[in-house]
Amino acid sequence: MDVGAAAVLAGIAAFGGMLAVLVGAYGLRQARRVSETGVRVQALVKRYPGADRAESALLRPLLQFVTEDDRVMEVVCPVPSTRRQPFSDGDDVHVSYDPADPRIVVVHGREHLGPERVFIAGGALVVLFSVTLLVVVIAGR
Question: How far is CA 123 from CA 72, 90, 98, 128, in A?
């Protein structure tokens, strides 16, 4: 493989990997920021409107809460219901919301940060692969 072609391939892969790392890090930062500095309130779990019970189990429920300035917010739950921790219609859950944008919420005890960590790890692996590819091509020259 030509060194120039390998450098272009490695550069594109490294750029994509770094982008994935940044996206994952941003997601982790946002979740932690809202958890730590957001306003903590209780939210009511509501079944998705217009859905029957069987359909509603597949959809993410709505969370209804009142903000500090007495606005009633209804947002789609950021995490899905699971068998171990189902969201039932009428349950109360603790959430933190961003006062600047109350549509951004974190459900306490159910922060699923796995996808963000996968983005960081996958991006780091792609960057490592691209650097390794470039080193192997240059060393084999």
Answer: 39, 40, 28, 9
Residues 6 or more apart from 131 whose CB is under 8 A from it?
10, 14
Distance CA 102, CA 66 (A): 10
Q: How far apart are CA 26 and CA 16, in angstroms?
A: 15
Return the structure tokens found at 134: 């470039």
* pLDDT for position 42: 94
pLDDT band at residue 55 under the 50/70/90 scheme: low
pLDDT digits (tens, 9 = 90+) for 83-106: 777 888 888 999 999 999 999 999
The answer to whether the CB of 66 falls within 8 A of the CB of 72 is yes
**Dmax (CA) of the chain:** 68
Measured CA to CA, the distance from residue 40 to residue 24 in angstroms comes to: 24
